[in-house]
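STRUCTURE:
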C-alpha cells in the first residue's frame, strides 16, 4: 500500500488525458520511481472532455491497481501494483481556473499527453477561452500563464513529452504552438521563451494496455486482493518509452528515467521506431493471413503451435532482422527485440484477434513491409522465402466474395469481413487466378512501385500460392520450415 508520505509529494507533472496507456506506462514509471525515492513527484491530470469520469478517481484518492500479466524472458509473470502517481484529476470544462493556477507551481517540470493522433492538430483557438477547445490550445494557454506568472524566467520552462502515436509528435506539437502563438498575438518575447525555455522531446511508447479487465477476471482479482477497484487496468510486462533528447536539462528533470530499463533517453529514437515498426508490426502483418489460413483466431493460440511459432521466429530472425541491420541497429538489438516479440505474441492473458490485425491489410503491407523488401534486396540477390510466403498468404486472403455490398474472405474455416479499401481491386484481380499474382505485385497504386522488379519475387510468391491452393496454408508452412531446418 502507498505510504502516507507519498500523498504529500508535490505535483511535478501535468498530464493531459486519463487514458489507460498513460496510466499503464508513464504513470507506472513515475510511481515506481517515487517508491524508490528517485523522482518524488506526482501527476496532476487534466481530463479534456468533461467532469464525468473523474468520480472514480475522487472516490479512490486517485489510486488504481495495475495488473501486469504476460510472458517475460520466456517465463509467465503476474504482479499487482497499487499506483499512487496521480494526485488529482481536474476536468478542463469545469475546473479551468484551478488548472491554470497549477501553472504557478514552481515544482512543475514535465507535461505529458496522449490525446490520440487527432489531438495534435492546428485549430483557431483563443487562449483566453476557458478552456480553449483543442489540446494544443489548452497547452498554449497554460504555458502562456506560466510565462506571465514567472515573468519570462527561462528556468521555469517545462519538458513536454507527447506520447501520441504519430511521427515526430513533439516537433509537430511545437510547430502548432508556434502558429497558435502568432494567431493569438502573444508577442515575440513569449515566442522566444516557448522555444528556448521549454524542451519538446519526440517520444515512442510501446506497451499493450488492454485496460479494464473482463468482468469475471475483475471480480476474481478483487477477491484475491481483498478490495474493489473501479480503475483497475491490465498491461503486458513489456514496456518501452523512448525519449529523444541530448539535453542535460532534460536528463536532470526526467530523473525517473533511471528506475527502469524500459525508459531510454537517446539523441535519436529512430532505432526504436524501426525495431517496433518492422519486427513487431511488420511481423504481425506478414503473419496475419498465414495465421487465419491456419485456422487460428487469436495470436496466443497460434504461438502455442510449434509450426507457426517456428514460422514467426524464422521470419524475424532470418529475414526481417538481417534486413534492418545498419548503422544504428546492431545484431544484439534485433535479437533482444525479436525475443520480446515472441514473449508478447505468446501472452496467455491477451486475446489479440488476427481478424482485427487484418484491418486495412493492404495499406499495412505497403507501409510496413514493402520497405522491408527493399532493404532485403539491397543486401541479397535471392527472394526472401518467408516474406514471399507472407505475400502469397495475403493474396489468398484477399480472394473474397461479394455479399450485400461487402467483401468477405473465407479462409482456414473462417468467414472474415474485409475492411480494406483495396478489397474491390483485389476482388477483380482474382477473377483470373492465373494472373492474380502478377497483377497484384505489379500494381503501382498499391505499393508505390512494381514489386515484380525484385528478382525472383513474383515466381516465389506464385509457387507458394500454388502450394497453398493445393495443400492449405498450414501444411505449406510446415514444408517451408522443413526447408530451412532451423530449430529454437
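SEQUENCE:
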Amino acid at each position: 500500500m502507498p505510504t502516507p508520505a507519498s500523498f504529500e509529494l508535490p505535483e511535478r507533472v501535468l498530464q493531459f488525458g486519463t487514458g489507460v496507456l498513460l496510466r499503464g506506462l508513464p504513470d507506472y514509471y513515475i510511481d515506481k520511481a517515487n517508491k524508490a525515492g528517485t523522482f518524488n513527484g506526482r501527476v496532476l491530470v487534466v481530463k479534456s472532455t468533461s467532469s464525468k469520469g473523474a468520480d472514480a478517481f475522487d472516490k479512490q484518492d486517485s489510486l488504481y491497481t495495475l495488473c501486469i500479466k504476460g510472458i517475460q524472458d520466456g517465463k509467465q509473470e503476474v504482479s499487482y501494483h497499487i499506483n499512487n502517481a496521480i494526485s488529482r484529476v481536474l476536468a478542463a470544462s469545469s475546473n479551468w481556473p484551478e488548472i491554470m493556477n497549477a501553472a504557478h507551481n514552481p515544482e512543475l517540470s514535465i507535461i505529458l499527453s496522449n490525446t490520440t493522433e487527432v489531438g495534435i492538430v492546428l485549430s483557431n483557438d483563443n487562449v483566453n477561452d476557458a478552456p480553449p477547445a483543442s489540446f494544443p490550445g489548452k497547452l498554449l494557454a497554460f504555458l502562456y500563464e506560466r510565462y506571465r506568472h514567472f515573468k519570462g524566467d527561462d528556468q521555469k520552462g517545462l519538458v513536454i513529452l507527447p506520447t501520441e502515436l504519430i511521427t515526430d509528435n513533439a516537433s509537430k506539437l511545437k510547430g502548432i504552438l508556434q502558429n497558435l502563438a502568432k494567431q493569438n498575438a502573444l508577442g515575440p518575447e513569449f515566442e522566444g521563451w516557448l522555444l528556448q525555455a521549454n524542451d519538446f522531446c519526440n517520444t515512442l511508447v510501446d506497451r499493450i494496455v488492454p485496460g479494464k479487465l473482463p468482468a469475471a477476471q475483475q471480480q476474481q482479482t478483487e477477491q484475491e486482493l481483498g478490495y474493489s477497484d473501479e480503475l483497475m487496468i491490465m498491461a503486458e510486462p513489456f514496456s518501452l518509452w523512448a525519449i529523444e533528447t541530448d539535453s542535460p536539462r532534460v536528463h536532470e528533470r526526467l530523473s525517473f528515467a533511471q528506475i527502469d530499463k524500459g525508459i531510454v533517453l537517446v539523441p535519436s529514437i529512430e532505432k526504436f521506431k524501426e525495431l517496433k515498426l518492422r519486427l513487431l508490426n511488420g511481423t504481425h502483418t506478414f503473419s496475419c493471413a498465414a495465421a487465419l489460413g491456419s485456422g487460428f483466431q487469436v495470436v496466443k493460440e497460434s504461438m502455442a503451435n510449434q509450426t507457426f511459432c517456428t514460422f514467426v521466429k524464422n521470419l524475424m530472425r532470418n529475414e526481417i532482422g538481417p534486413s534492418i541491420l545498419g548503422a544504428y541497429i546492431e545484431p544484439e538489438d534485433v535479437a533482444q527485440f525479436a525475443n520480446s516479440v515472441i514473449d508478447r505474441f505468446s501472452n496467455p492473458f491477451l486475446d489479440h484477434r488476427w481478424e482485427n490485425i487484418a484491418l486495412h491489410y493492404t495499406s499495412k503491407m505497403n507501409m510496413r513491409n514493402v520497405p522491408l523488401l527493399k532493404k532485403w534486396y539491397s543486401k541479397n540477390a535471392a527472394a526472401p522465402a518467408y516474406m514471399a510466403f507472407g505475400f502469397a498468404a495475403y493474396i489468398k486472403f484477399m480472394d473474397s466474395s461479394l455479399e450485400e455490398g461487402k467483401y468477405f474472405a473465407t479462409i482456414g474455416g473462417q468467414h472474415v469481413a474485409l475492411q480494406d479499401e483495396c478489397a474491390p481491386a483485389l476482388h477483380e484481380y482474382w477473377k483470373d487466378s492465373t494472373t492474380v499474382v502478377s497483377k497484384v505485385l505489379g500494381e503501382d497504386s498499391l505499393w508505390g512501385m512494381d514489386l515484380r522488379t525484385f528478382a525472383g519475387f513474383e515466381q516465389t510468391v506464385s509457387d507458394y500460392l500454388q502450394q497453398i491452393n493445393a495443400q492449405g496454408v498450414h501444411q505449406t508452412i510446415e514444408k517451408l520450415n522443413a526447408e530451412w531446418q532451423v530449430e529454437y
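REMARK: DSSP finds 21 helices and 15 strands in the chain.
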